[in-house]
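Ticket #4471: structure output looks truncated?

Reporter: J.K.
Steps to reproduce: submitted the chain below (401 residues) through the standard prediction queue, then opened the result file.
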Amino acid sequence: MGRNADGATDRAGDTAEPDAHASPDPLPDADGDAARLAAALREARDRRADAERAVAEHGEATLATVGDAVDRLDRLLERYADSATGTGDFQAYVEFQGEFASVVEDLDEDVPGHEAFERANEAVDGRRLSESDFERAREALAPVRDLAGRLDEREAATNAVHEAERDAQRRVGALDDRIDELERLVELGEADLDAPVDDLREPVVGYDDAVRDAFAEFRREAPARAVLSFVAEAADTPFVDYTAPPPELVEFLAETPAGDEPITDLLAYADYSASKLDHYVDDPGTFTARVRPHRTYLERLSADPLTVGWPPPSAETLRFQREELVSLVAKFADEDVVARARALRDAADHPEYERLRRAAAAEAELSDAEFERVAAGAAAEELAAARARRAALSAALDGGE
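Returned output as attached by the reporter:
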């Protein structure tokens, strides 16, 4: 892989011409509204501060007393609106006036808005009441209803802050992901495309191909119990990512002649009817109960956890991985495959390993359009913009501007 004389990417299987339909990868919506979210957070905090000051002016307990009185009076006005007005029930009229006056008289004279409570009481303190009297009482209570609402406003403002903080934190998370992507893009886009990647490709890909062939033969020819025993051992190593086989399957295959059969035969048996299976295993019922539930596991067993992969991991990871692979591969593969596993150490010790690995990753992961975004500086600009948006949101979350 390399660059042609005009600087365009020249890679096997790709055209050097840029995609006519390609366009710069825009920042996702999650990135674009950071300023709005920061402003919303500041506004919500300002609202909460105003609400807290409004409550502190009279005190929470006092406002709660006012609110309780307003609620009780509103309920009385609602309950007696029909029965205590006009030529309605005289008893209801008496009860209403008594209960209404009692609520007002129980309030201390220094309670904020006391005059409004008295005006409301005066509005319904007549020999005969009408709907307009009830309406005047409700209007008279408007100032204290606003006072009582300060507690509700403080709660609503606090909830608004929590929602704004949650939204901002979610955007920070989205920006973190985007920044990671762009950093990776810039890093790979600046890789040395003229690096001799084949210096790594031959030992790594050559080993991977060889171990796949060797494991396929092992899985096809060896007794199932031997294959699962190997996989169980390999699953205990940190750099070989096998899932340990189901214990009940291992136990069954260790105790029955069916364990001498290759995995491919066991999978075939799992599809047989009970009468046909009776010709191949000693206990068809137990075989079906123990093997059939795990057929997917058996079908998916492959050499993938034993491979290095392309592009390869860091040199340090490959060194540790190589030590485990040499020991494990020797249990089923011939010396040629083991020798290839040993040679991975030489590959990891290549003096320019990271340069070659970065070039391999760029070749494998990036399109021509992405290379051109890096070359044109567009990716770096997007990265700077994402970092700036994240900084603004973080500052807003921390209480700054």
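Triage note (M.O.): checked the attachment and the full token line is present. The beta strands are 2-3, 9-10.
Status: closed, working as intended.
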